[in-house]
């Protein structure tokens, strides 16, 4: 029998990959591990370790408090780097601060205040849990209605459904650009335009987009966005997130947490809160300098590679993984659920299997690291900067072999605290 998808195909694709050398920028502690989870926690860049040591040894230890002269601008500078290289935005529209959850709260609350009299928030039932919970909390606190659209878990957000739900009473529409579960991309431009026609503000969650797919914030006229930096931006566990506010909106929006890092002439220690005009007004308190330094390092690597080349490789990787999954895994009970069309596909490929949880556990023991997502899906995250086609080949070979041998059946059905 002819072997379909021989390893030599993967080797050819790797040899032709213009981003291949970027892999050397990252740490590979165990070369046997096939890491397909860069969309949950990106790998550590080698230069991040050096940059953090510089902050600790030279700046903190050496300069002591005088280092605040340059630390004070780090969040804004890193935001500008994200605006210039990761998302389509202008300088002064992005800042690094807090977590994605906190930024979502700040921007959503600011948006609701900017639409007084409107009583409805709209999201979808497949939005990431923290987004749904924060919107539930805001709706409860303000006596507003949270309208939740039903989204197909695999096809992603349907613009027609969104258009039905958003009306003249809608203050804010909040959705994820790339679905964390299926990897489906939502039509940012069409959905934003429709909501604007009804007078609503729009807030996009970019956690699974930033560093994986183009994010047309400026051309789609997006008002607000949040995103995290520890996934495709390789900023490290719990690295601070970023937020985006379209420049024309900045002075008319007030966030709910009136901290001193948003204050005009901050060190005058003035009596009353009067926020600065720029994007800094969406900061709250002292930034975590070591964390922001790690974000800057991760974003620098993305900037060097360029989002265009990253997206091109990402599409080739997901197409390759899709082909292998269909050829090898569908005959043994899997189904590929990520949209097949390139323009609807984010940076990961999701497969469905009734025994997904057992298989995910067995995969980890076979040193192929995926993400399990309820109810019965496995995400294969293919971070373009360090994932080789040969890794996809090796990882999926191991999955095929272990499921064919029934090794996953040795694992229990009960789930741990972190999946
Ligand atoms: C990872 C992720 C988050 C994480 O939010 P945190 O505040 O960093 O915990 C939020 N939204 C989406 C869509 C995510 O994928």
TrEMBL record:
It is an enzyme of class 3 (hydrolase). Its EC number is 3.7.1.3. GO terms for biological process: anthranilate metabolic process; L-kynurenine catabolic process; L-tryptophan catabolic process to kynurenine; NAD+ biosynthetic process; quinolinate biosynthetic process. Keywords: Hydrolase, Pyridine nucleotide biosynthesis, Pyridoxal phosphate. GO terms for cellular component: cytoplasm. Gene3D superfamilies: Aspartate Aminotransferase, domain 1, Type I PLP-dependent aspartate aminotransferase-like (Major domain). Pyridoxal 5'-phosphate binds at residues 100-101, 128-131, 205, 208, 230, 260, 286. It comes from the Bacteria. InterPro entries: DegT/StrS_aminotransferase (IPR000653), Kynureninase (IPR010111), PyrdxlP-dep_Trfase (IPR015424), PyrdxlP-dep_Trfase_major (IPR015421), PyrdxlP-dep_Trfase_small (IPR015422). The modification N6-(pyridoxal phosphate)lysine is found at residue 231. Pathway: Amino-acid degradation; L-kynurenine degradation; L-alanine and anthranilate from L-kynurenine: step 1/1; Cofactor biosynthesis; NAD(+) biosynthesis; quinolinate from L-kynurenine: step 2/3. Its cofactor is pyridoxal 5'-phosphate. It catalyses: 3-hydroxy-L-kynurenine + H2O = 3-hydroxyanthranilate + L-alanine + H(+); L-kynurenine + H2O = anthranilate + L-alanine + H(+). Homodimer. Belongs to the DegT/DnrJ/EryC1 family. Belongs to the kynureninase family. Catalyzes the cleavage of L-kynurenine (L-Kyn) and L-3-hydroxykynurenine (L-3OHKyn) into anthranilic acid (AA) and 3-hydroxyanthranilic acid (3-OHAA), respectively. This is Kynureninase. It comes from Actinorhabdospora filicis.
